[in-house]
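user: Please review this fold.
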Amino acid sequence: MPNIFYSAFFTVVFPIYKVLHKKRAYGRVEKHLELARQYLAENSINCAELAKVNPRDTFKGIFWNALESYRGLARFKSVEKRIVYENEHIIQGAIAECAKQNAPIAGISIHQGAFELLHRALCRYSEHVHLITDSIGDMAFREVLKDLRSDPHLTEYHPDETGRLIRELFRTKGILAMVIDQGKHTKGNTVSLFGRPSTLYLRLPQKINEMGAGIVTFRTWSEKKRIVIRFEKYYPPKYDAGIENAENAAPSESPLVTGIAREVETWIAEHPEQWSWNYHGNFIATL
């Protein structure tokens, strides 16, 4: 379908959705945005993007980015030619450094922008990408999505297969691909985002980092003429141990988790209209 159809569809459907979800998804987004703005103001942090965004912007962003994701997975040329990669030297350097130690890496991100494209993007850098996903929708939808995600260099795992995933990751010296801001039936790490307790699912990246794997953070966001996939930071193997020795951090604190949480907060603030504020696991404190 052409974009004009989807624009008309969103224009018609969103007001109905808003009315039906005023006390649920729409209401949560409204309150989350307001509290985030209050936090930034109280801490004298200037963020023009977050100041002007409204709930409709976020739902529109999620709608269009999902569409871009599925078009990209279906290899639409109109999407593929818009993808640009930034800071590739970060992941290339991480792979080279970890190769010297005979170690794999993890490429981790969040549900922002056309995030489904991130997993396949990692296949540019390794013949062995291990993708961990959670169950969404019914069986038929999961099979369609798995088929769309498929790539000769990518293997998909359910969270129950974590043990097998870790064995294969270290055997192939490949890349673990996962998003860390949503999860079901699994325990995450409590972090602070915009001054409020939330959850990031970093236990697996944290574990393999302790075992000797490096971590690269990366993200995507959509612009009018570009879909940007940008690599951000490299965390070397056994990062927490190195930082604790250097800075004498408290044993209960994890510099790795804290550092990634600060990155995620920045990503959300820079493109707040493209993050899923309405997810139930976000901001676990009572509104």
About this structure: The first strand starts at residue 83 and ends at 86. The chain is about 50% helix and 15% strand.
